[in-house]
Design a protein that fits this description.
hydrolase, six-stranded antiparallel sheet, 741 residues, alpha+beta, single chain, glycosidase, 12 helices, 15% helix, Beta-galactosidase, 32% strand, GH
Length: 741
């Protein structure tokens, strides 16, 4: 998938790709390295170079990144007297060894810019301010050591400081103004944990933050994330969703998210077209009123001038006078003036189309498409080999090789111990620092009782000064409601078994399937493995699994870990935190793909849907009252040359490649409401708007719609009109005769 994603990024106006280096993925055991497949760092950086782009390598090796354990290998925790990210000799020894190993590997491939490669910047450490105040870490000494160690590697490119956040142009003050201002993370949305609502950040706010940063002399902006992708397998940090930064300009599945993608692309194109004035021009600043500013870059000898006019007031549009001209600036926006005169871009004015994502259940029959099941063997105390008086800490047992640890104990009750009243039942109460737990008990509470609990973690924490001391597992366990009072089981004697039997035997692979006995599936079974086969859906659209019918567990396709799911963990709105899970097409064969799911709770596998994803519903939402951007300019050398000043507002709809507009879903001129995919007509709706749009757009891959009330027969005097055109069309592939499907 890398080449396609890099091509999309370059199409979006980027010229640099930034990546972390994942220590726990590359060195899962001390001295044993993995750079194969999607861990091939050298191939990734070379591919960046093949796309004629630069690279920024954030070696860390602590990265945070909502990545398991912040990128630090588990085995570091087992080194005596280690303190992570501190002035601590055991940690510094291992960190330096890994950093030098990575730098040498990149040097050997001649990938640093000093060698003719694409890597222009490197980063040591990450977001250290979050733990610097921890007195144990002696933060300043550690940072000084890390900086000097990094410099001693002699890469020939700078090691950089960072700003991570949403508005570094207005929140970050550099002490040394002779150094470039580098913004390593401009958050395009917010990563999500289980239970979180969808995290939104508008295209307008991202564009505003970027131009504020550049206006004040910023040198580099990196989007975090421009494409977030998927936390495959067990790679996400604690509670972090498998889908990562789905609201980025390129969504989780590699599709444009409009208008975010297009609006930011237009910004990039303007900046790059006028880069000489921006990089070499003399900078000046002028205050134009309360909250209004002008930042100007001029090269008089080349007749170049570029201005950024800012309105930093929230909710207050306004007009300013700049160089003798009256200019309108919407609230909390920045306008770019080419020649310090003509507005070629405003962050608040979005003229690109919107897109709405849809999921389509696919026909995926296969000769072995019936669900089968295998139930995990529930261990009892007498079957375990690792025993202790109290429950043991979870991570020390699993070594982060599995999310799962079985705890089991046995105890005896007599009939007199049980409540005499039939409406009172004993209750098992467990306090645990793991993330989830399910329990198993025998049918009758008389005689010897066997109690087993499957404790699970949803990734390890990714940051914090106490990372090396983080613990998981049972801390208290008791039975309440007995006739004889509360029964404390904490020191009852416990057996432990790390990992699932299905994990140990790798029954999610073709090779491991035969190691257990499968039988026809029945739903509503806890701690159960399910399997079936399916054929690859037709076409090239991304493929997902809809797991809404399941509870919590893990997904495997053809032996590849797709990721954790937890659909029973609901948001405040009552919907699953994440219902769809991405299966990259490179994981798939054309026929008989093996799907294996481990379900902890009581899911119904027959309800799992295999779907494809499209963004074939596209929209425009524009007002006739909004002054249009000047689109009629082209680049000549280092200057933007205006062909004409065109102030008419137009909306353009363009289908994905090889598709045409086959349906006008919605069209209204007046005061329509709602977002793309959920438009509704207002009180000033024009009935014939849909007919006009159908005439202009049906059967075409693209169409342009003037935003003029007379064209749609609208009453501009309607009291509540906003003179807004809202249109949603649906694209599809044409049939063989050229008509739409």
């Amino acid at each position: 998938m890398w080449p396609k994603l890099m091509k999309l990024a370059k199409e979006g106006g980027l010229n640099t790709i930034e990546t972390y280096v994942f220590w726990n993925a590359h060195e899962p055991e001390p001295g044993k390295f993995n750079f194969e497949g999607r861990l091939d760092l050298i191939k990734f950086v070379k591919l960046i170079q093949e796309h004629d782009m630069y690279a920024v390598v954030r070696i860390g090796p602590f990265i945070q990144a909502e990545w398991n354990h912040g990128g630090l290998p588990y085995w570091l925790r087992e080194i005596d007297r280690i303190i992570f990210r501190a002035n601590n000799d055991p940690f510094k020894k291992e960190m330096e060894k890994f950093v030098r190993f990575i730098v040498q590997k990149l040097k050997d491939a001649e990938l640093f810019a000093s060698q003719g490669g694409p890597i222009i910047l490197s980063q040591i450490e990450n977001e250290y301010g979050n733990i610097k105040k921890d007195h144990v870490t002696e933060g300043d000494k550690y940072l000084e050591w890390a900086a000097q160690m990094a410099l001693s590697t002699q890469t020939g490119v700078p090691w950089i400081p960072t700003c991570n956040g949403r508005h570094c142009g207005d929140t970050w003050t550099m002490r040394d103004t002779n150094k470039p201002r580098l913004w390593t993370e401009n958050w395009t949305a917010q990563f999500r944990a289980y239970g979180d609502q969808v995290a939104m950040r508008s295209a307008e706010d991202i564009a505003y933050s970027v131009l504020r940063f550049f206006a004040k002399g910023g040198s580099l902006v990196n989007y975090y994330m421009y494409h977030g992708g998927t936390n495959f397998g067990r790679t996400s940090a604690s509670y972090v969703l498998t889908g990562y930064y789905d609201e980025a300009p390129i969504d989780e599945y590699g599709l444009y998210k409009e208008p975010k993608f297009g609006h930011i692309r237009d910004l990039h194109n303007v900046i790059m077209s006028y880069q000489k004035a921006f990089l070499e021009g003399k900078q000046s600043f002028e205050k134009l009123g309360h909250g209004y500013e002008a930042h100007t870059f001029e090269l008089p000898e080349d007749n170049l001038c570029l201005s950024f006019l800012s309105n930093n007031n929230t909710g207050e549009d306004g007009t300013v006078v700049f160089r003798g001209e009256k200019l309108y600036i919407p609230s909390r926006s920045v306008s770019i003036l080419a020649g310090c005169k003509n507005v070629v871009y405003n962050t608040k004015r979005v003229f690109v189309q919107h897109s709405e994502r849809s999921f389509h259940t696919a026909e995926v029959t296969s000769k072995n498409n019936l669900w089968e099941m295998y139930q995990e063997t529930i261990p009892k105390y007498r079957n375990t080999k690792i025993r202790a008086q109290e429950p043991l800490e979870q991570y020390n047992q699993t070594k982060d090789a599995s999310d799962y640890l079985w705890y089991t104990t046995s105890f005896r009750l007599e009939s007199d111990d049980l409540p005499f009243r039939g409406d009172i039942r004993p209750v098992l109460q467990v306090q645990s620092s793991a993330h989830s737990m399910i329990g198993f008990a025998n049918d009758v509470f008389v005689g010897v009782n066997h109690l087993t609990m499957l404790s699970s973690t949803m990734g390890m924490k990714d940051s914090g000064g106490e990372l090396a001391e983080m613990k998981g597992g049972i801390q208290e366990c008791r039975i309440q409601g007995l006739n004889t009072g509360t029964l404390d089981l904490q020191v009852n004697g416990w057996g432990h078994k790390a990992a699932l039997e299905g994990e140990d035997k790798e029954i999610y692979t073709e090779k491991g399937l035969g190691k257990v006995q499968w039988k026809p599936a029945q739903g509503d079974r806890g701690a159960t493995w399910y399997k079936r086969y399916f054929d690859e859906p037709d076409g090239n659209d991304p493929v997902v699994l809809d797991m809404s019918s399941m509870g919590k567990g893990m997904i495997f396709v053809n032996g590849e870990g797709v990721g954790r799911y937890w659909t029973s963990y609901r948001t405040l709105a009552g919907s699953p935190s994440q219902a769809q899970y991405h299966i990259p097409r490179p994981f798939l064969k054309s026929k008989d793909n093996l799907l294996v799911v481990f379900e902890e709770e009581m899911g119904k596998p027959e309800g799992i849907l295999i779907q494809t994803v499209t963004r074939d519903d596209i929209c425009v939402l524009l007002s006739e009252h909004n002054p249009a951007q000047i689109k009629t300019w082209l680049t000549e050398g280092d200057q933007i040359k205006l062909i004409a000043e065109d102030h008419s507002t137009r909306g353009t709809l363009t289908c994905p490649p090889k598709k045409i507009i086959q349906e006008v879903v919605f069209a209204s001129f007046g005061n329509p409401e709602g977002p793309c995919g959920n438009f509704t007509v207002g009180t000033c709706h024009t009935p014939n708007a849909k007919q006009v749009v159908e005439k202009e757009c049906l059967g075409r891959p693209s169409c342009m719609l003037p935003v003029v009330h007379t064209l749609y027969g609208a009453d501009i005097n309607c009291p509540t009109t906003t003179a807004t055109l809202a249109v949603q069309v649906r694209c599809d592939k044409p049939d063989k005769k050229g008509a739409s499907k």
